[in-house]
Design goal:
alpha/beta; Beta-Lactamase; Rossmann fold; nine-stranded mixed beta sheet; globular
Length: about 500
């Protein structure tokens, strides 16, 4: 943990203590309030609810003050690793609580230790959810509630921030780690946690009801193709096809809505890239977790407080062309950089990957047209469509279904142009006809349409054959697929 983070943690604690001394009465000390409020308290008006006093508040305040007195300069010792500092803080905190001689149950003692440690070294009441591997997303709606996503479903938690100021300090602590800022002049920010988890924060005056924080967590161990097959996101046949397309240097566009798993799928696709190729990734906030050795990661930069110094995705795409890339991966195409991506795909940078927000493959084509127009070039629509038809080989549509699962619903080949229209051909479609199981989950899976894509001939010329079983043709089991989606040898 950086020295600046430790200083901010101390500032947050001292600010809350000063706030209490100046008239906040019985407000609890800074830290997570994980105990559920009694039903009567939840039904009272807000002014009455705030009168509910944490029974451990005074003990917590005294313990915090004694802890900082004992820690002294050790809290800011940059030679200590995070693990050493955390162990040291917990040891000192245990001695402080013992010295209080206040009778505490095992649960109360554990809660008190955890809350103080989280306030000093972590992110307050959301720290337990960041440490919980079953939580995939954290949503904080001001100081009124914290929601989490587990297994694709939203859940309301009993954890709370003490105040909007408490939440604001945690947001500032997060964004400062990556050199970003958030204030009234710049009230929105995209950032990331040290583990790569995506962070979005927005504060008043844009957020009317108070600061809002959304964190999309990344798995400590990135998902592999076998994981997506076991989840039902794809089938071994789709995995085999995508493996061949990536190794065959086809240009692939991953399309889907917000929270559908586009970045996760992009990570899996990138794992098929051979180790001997140079990869340049371009993102607003670094999220991709590539395992290859030869990777150059570029990150966009927002304008400074004077409105200068911005480096947009489009600038990075153009710069990447001078970096001798074998592959260009754009985390998300959302604006004028679409034109530069298409030009790169059409001028020798085959095998490029990107994502786009769209609900269907046809919508993805329309979105690409719109984004090219956002580049400010007065191009006729037909010229744009010809660029798209020539550049993009495959569109993979991923959708978040009503049961919370993420499934690939279309694998679509871009055929070319017919008149003024970009022609598409579905290779795989999700079959909804099997209905739902007893848990409300879709039974269906992706099924081949029986159509063999045109690009398979090109892949065979490159020495990358695709077994006929992938496209639904009957074949002897000896020529089937392994669990990882590759053909049996």
């Amino acid at each position: 943990m950086k020295l600046s983070q430790r200083l901010k943690g101390l500032d947050a604690i001292e600010a809350d203590q000063e706030h209490r001394e100046n008239g906040s009465g019985g407000a609890p000390a800074d830290g997570p309030s994980t105990a559920a409020a009694p039903p009567a308290a939840r039904s009272l008006p807000k002014a009455q609810v705030t009168e509910q006093v944490d029974p451990l508040a005074e003990l917590k305040q005294r313990a915090q003050q004694a802890l900082f007195a004992r820690l002294g300069s050790r809290l800011y010792d940059s030679s200590l690793s995070d693990e050493q500092l955390q162990a040291f803080v917990r040891q000192e905190l245990t001695e402080v609580i013992d010295a209080e001689r206040t009778p505490l149950s095992a649960d109360e003692r554990k809660r008190l230790t955890g809350e103080i440690t989280n306030d000093v070294l972590g992110y307050g009441p959301i720290q337990p959810f960041l440490d919980d591997p079953t939580v995939t997303e954290i949503m904080v709606n001001s100081d009124t509630g914290i929601y989490v996503e587990r297994n694709g479903r939203l859940q309301h938690t009993t954890a709370r921030f003490l105040s909007e100021d408490h939440l604001r300090r945690v947001i500032e602590r997060i964004v400062s780690q990556v050199g970003r800022r958030i204030d009234e002049s710049s009230p929105m920010v995209d950032a990331r946690l040290p583990d790569g988890s995506r962070v979005n924060a927005i504060i008043p005056p844009l957020a009317v009801d108070g600061p809002t924080l959304t964190i999309r967590k990344f798995a400590a161990d990135p998902y592999q193709v076998g994981d997506l097959i076991s989840f039902g996101t794809m089938t071994p046949e789709i995995a085999t096809l995508l493996d061949a397309c990536v190794r065959g240097r086809l240009n692939i566009l991953v399309s889907g809505g917000t929270g559908t798993g586009k970045t996760t799928l992009l990570n899996v696709l990138s794992s098929y890239i051979p180790e001997d190729e140079r990869i340049v990734t371009i993102e607003d906030a670094v999220e991709l977790q590539l395992n290859q050795e030869h990777v150059v990661r570029l990150e966009a930069r927002p304008p400074n407080i004077e409105g200068k110094g911005q480096v947009a995705i489009r600038d990075l795409v153009r710069n990447s062309l001078r970096m001798r890339p074998d592959r260009i991966i754009v985390g998300e195409t959302r604006g004028g950089e679409a034109l530069d991506m298409l030009q790169a795909m059409n001028t020798g940078h085959d095998g490029s990957l990107s994502t786009v927000h769209a609900n269907t493959p046809r919508d993805a084509i329309s979105r690409m047209e719109t984004m090219v127009l956002m580049a400010g070039m007065d191009l006729p629509v037909r010229a744009i469509r010809e660029q798209i038809a020539s550049a993009v080989d495959l569109i993979v549509q991923i959708t978040r279904l009503r049961d919370g699962s993420r499934r690939i619903t279309h694998v679509t080949e871009v055929h070319g142009m017919e008149g003024q229209v970009v022609t598409l051909q579905d290779v795989f479609l999700f079959d909804y006809s099997d209905g739902l199981d007893e848990d409300g989950r879709f039974r269906g899976k992706q099924r081949p349409t029986g159509i063999r894509p045109r690009f398979t001939d090109r892949l065979e010329q490159y020495g990358i054959p695709i077994p006929p079983i992938v496209f639904g043709a009957p074949i002897d089991d000896a020529d089937g697929l392994n669990l990882n989606g590759r053909p049996r040898r």
